[in-house]
Write a structure and sequence with these properties.
Blueprint (H helix, E strand, L loop, with lengths): L3 H14 L5 E6 L11 H9 L4 E7 L2 E6 L4 E5 L4 E7 L8 E7 L3 E7 L5 E5 L23 H10 L4 H5 L10 H11 L12 H20 L41 E5 L2 E5 L23
Antiparallel strand pairs: 1-6, 2-3, 3-4, 4-8, 5-7, 6-7, 9-10
Length: 293
């Protein structure tokens, strides 16, 4: 699934190529991508037609186009979604689901093979759509509260990787960048937040920012042709990954083969030497109750 850097790359593309244009018409070719819009395909198209695009914004893995009248078009890429800007006469992509005609002779196209992503119209959502107001800020947001994040992590008896993936705690961090940040911090993903020092959590947060910034500089991570920016260009950060996807490859620090384990229907990658598995707490055996005799 595209993570924060991939979505930010798309947002920047929308800002460069879509903001300032008017949506001339909307054609919903498949109803599933607009399933979260209560207006249905026809109502979704009607709400967007003729609207001016004023800004492209993002919260975590969600992005939206701010429209005139303080409304917005909200989008999520899901597992395989793409937002592409194409000339109107460009051949239709195989999995083209929604097309929006733009002033200037271009189209904004939503392409989604697996159709887990989607678009919806958000009334009054130009600044922040109500549908995603519960999602936390991401570590690259200037208003992200480092102290509050560190305090919450250390209060919770929850594995640190699960906390990194909790979008109500910190948004935008996915499986790939969580593994990379944990490798850089030399922490195993199963370490409990309540057993980490403040310094460890601060260092981890710093590495989360570093790995995301590095990925942004290279256009995000791309393992196949699905993850592209609005111009159809793939990222190259996958060539710089130290842990994720490197099962059996030597750790760049100590040479120990990287290990893969199952994690929440996905995989976690770590170095068993640099990131030792945490010891389980021993529970004191209960003494038998004295006999009533």
């Amino acid at each position: 699934m595209p993570e924060l850097p991939e979505v930010e790359v798309v947002r920047r593309g929308l800002e460069a190529h879509v903001v300032g244009h008017t949506i001339g018409s909307v054609d919903v070719l498949h109803p599933r991508p607009v399933r979260r819009d209560p207006r249905g395909p026809a109502g979704f198209a009607e709400a967007l037609t003729g609207r001016d695009v004023l800004a492209a914004r993002r919260r975590g893995k969600y992005l939206w186009l701010a429209l005139d009248g303080e409304d917005a078009m909200l989008g999520h890429l899901g597992m395989s979604g793409q937002l592409l800007v194409q000339p109107v006469d460009a051949p239709a992509e195989r999995h083209l689901r929604v097309r929006l005609a733009l002033s200037g002779g271009r189209e904004l196209r939503f392409v989604d093979q697996r159709m887990f992503g989607g678009l919806s119209f958000s009334p009054g959502g130009a600044e922040l759509p109500a549908e995603i107001a519960h999602i936390a800020r991401d570590p690259l947001d200037p208003l992200f509260d480092d102290d509050a994040f560190v305090a919450r992590v250390r209060r919770r008896p929850v594995a640190i990787k699960r906390q990194l993936l909790d979008q109500n705690l910190v948004s935008g961090v996915g499986n790939i960048y969580a593994d990379e940040a944990l490798w850089r911090t030399r922490l195993h993903g199963e370490r409990l937040g309540e057993r980490l020092t403040r310094g460890q959590v601060v260092e981890l947060l710093g590495h989360v920012r570093e790995v995301m910034t590095d990925a942004l500089a290279q256009g995000g991570t791309s393992f196949d042709s699905l993850y592209v920016n609005v111009n159809g260009e793939s990222g190259y950060f996958d060539r710089s990954l130290h842990a994720y996807g490197n099962e059996g490859e030597p750790c760049e620090r100590c040479g120990t083969p990287i290990r893969r384990v199952a994690f929440m229907n996905r995989s976690s990658y770590f170095c068993p030497v640099c990131q030792p598995v945490p010891r389980k707490r021993r529970t004191a055996a209960r003494r038998p109750l004295p006999s009533a005799d």
